Amino acid sequence: MRFQTLKGFHDILPDDFRYWRHVLNMAVDLADRFGYLQLSPPILEETRLFLRGLQEGSAVVLDKELYSFEDKDGAQISLRPEFTASVMRAYVEHGMHTWPKPVKLFAIGPLFRHEKPQAGRFRQHVQFNAELLGEEDPAADLEIMQLAYSLYDELGFQELTFQLNSIGCPNCRPAYIEKLIAYFEAHLDRLPEVDRRRLSVNPLRVLDTKEPETLALLENAPRSIDHLCNECDAHFRSLTGYLQALELPYVVNPRLVRGFDYYVRTVFEVWGAELGAQNALCGGGRYDGLVESVGGPKTPGVGVGIGIDRIVISMRGQGIEPPPLPHPLIMVLHRGDAAKVEAVRLVSDLRRNGVPALLAFGKRSLKSQFKSANRARVRFALVLGEDEIAQNAVTVRDMESGEQTLIARPKLISWLQARLDIR
RNA sequence: GUGACCAUAGCUCAACAGGCAGAGCACCUGGUUGUGGCCCAGGAGGUUACGGGUUCAAGCCCCGUUGGUCACCCCA
């Protein structure tokens, strides 16, 4: 058997990079405009970091999907499954709580989860992640949401909407969850097996069920936004007020939840055109207790994670074309050994002057070199032979029109730069 | 972890009811001197994912494995 990528892993090929470069450039540019600073935590961290402070059920699930290893010195380490934990760790480790508030950070890189591959879900995927730390203002929630929205919007995505919910805080949520449990327990006979289990493991999760029976029950189920404390309610109202002021489309979705319990108040997703079972392009929310959970001071935070692989898949599906990648516009052809040396020199000279250029390798016939030039889709083929060398000149062939001109060597670079719109 | 569908050349796909494994695209060479694209001729490329079984005979039928796709579970 030949070698192939591991299950759930894939190569990102040159053709994919038409999209990748565009998306990544756009993301970085946007982060700059919003005033976020880039950081890049290591891909490997202590396993405990990723399991910190989670309720038992969650920790088991998480552990199962974690790529964990024992290092040669016996340390328990894992490939990061998310950015947030690493960013929190870096925040505390480097004393960022002493930086002027808020601290706004972003990171781009691969994340790893040992899960069964599915549409838009891989074992390795690349995420663009932004966090805003040390600020409670609902305008901070808005900013994170807007950052995500702008990325999709400026890439050309259509029909974008926010799905928005508030799941309260440690003050008001327990009472709400009790009400929710009570409601479902009253209808236990109509609740499918899957959701009965959810109800006992992670009650909020029942809200985003796919069971038709449960969906019907949810029509009359208590909603978290109706059970917020005064502070949470005010926060939510301000946020929706800002969204309205900016005319950003949003839908309050009382069924929107997160799987982990460190989220407070705001949870959101951006939805676009269908992507199989997942129509969420990205998800984010507020997590005021996270910094504390890795040993730092109590610090509010909001963040979002944006899957780049998913963006690229979606762009392909919707026929959004990225700008073409730059490619060499010149190929230098040659005839004879003396000319070959000159050709090598010329290519090097061109590149030094910012002209992307290719050398015809080997010593094949001019005919075959022209064939290569044609396939490389260059704009000009430069020919060096005995005649040209004798005159210290180069024959320039326009590969589109077939027109040929003899250009004196000293004038060549500027002649090309003018025509190729370089500098 | 559970389930469904799928796997033939680099890519997209053919191959009657089980009877010699093919096409298009891409690739390489040639069509005589220092000129590409179009055209023409030729070439290379396969253990039909892998392992077993049934059969005179398996790409095709049966079992298993691996991988892919999709959904469930889960979702940082």
Structural summary, described in words:
This protein has 423 residues and is of the alpha+beta class. The protein has three domains: 17-168 and 228-318, 2-Layer Sandwich (BirA Bifunctional Protein, domain 2), CATH 3.30.930; 173-226, no CATH class; 330-420, 3-Layer(aba) Sandwich (Rossmann fold). It is built from 15 helices and 16 strands. The chain has an eight-stranded mixed beta sheet. A five-stranded mixed beta sheet has the order 13-12-14-15-16, with helices on both faces. Strands 2-4-3 form a three-stranded antiparallel beta sheet. Strand 9 (264-271) and strand 10 (280-286) form a beta hairpin. Helix 1 (17-34) packs antiparallel against helix 5, helix 1 packs across helix 11 and helix 5 (138-155) runs parallel beside helix 9 (230-245). It is elongated and about 95 Å long. The protein binds one RNA strand of 76 nucleotides through helix 3 and helix 13.
Summarize the structure.
This protein is 39% helix and 21% strand.
User: Averaging pLDDT over every residue, what do you get?
Assistant: 91
* CATH superfamily placement of the largest domain: Bira Bifunctional Protein, Domain 2
Biggest sheet details: 8 strands, mixed
Provide the gyration radius in Å.
Answer: 28 Å
Strand content: 15-25%
Which descriptors apply to this entry?
single chain, about 425 residues, alpha+beta, BirA Bifunctional Protein, domain 2, Rossmann fold, 3 domains, eight-stranded mixed beta sheet, five-stranded mixed beta sheet, RNA-binding
What is the secondary structure topology, with strand pairs?
Elements (H helix, E strand, L loop, with lengths): L16 H18 L2 E2 L5 E3 H5 L4 H9 L3 E3 L5 E4 L4 H10 L9 E10 L11 E10 L4 H18 L5 E6 L6 H14 L6 H9 L10 H7 L11 H16 L4 E3 L11 E8 L8 E7 L3 H4 L7 E7 H11 L11 E5 L2 H16 L4 E3 L6 H10 L4 E5 L1 H6 L1 E6 L5 E5 H12 L3
Parallel strand pairs: 1-5, 7-8, 12-13, 12-14
Antiparallel strand pairs: 2-4, 3-4, 5-6, 6-11, 7-9, 9-10, 10-11, 14-15, 15-16
The structure holds one RNA strand of 76 nucleotides.
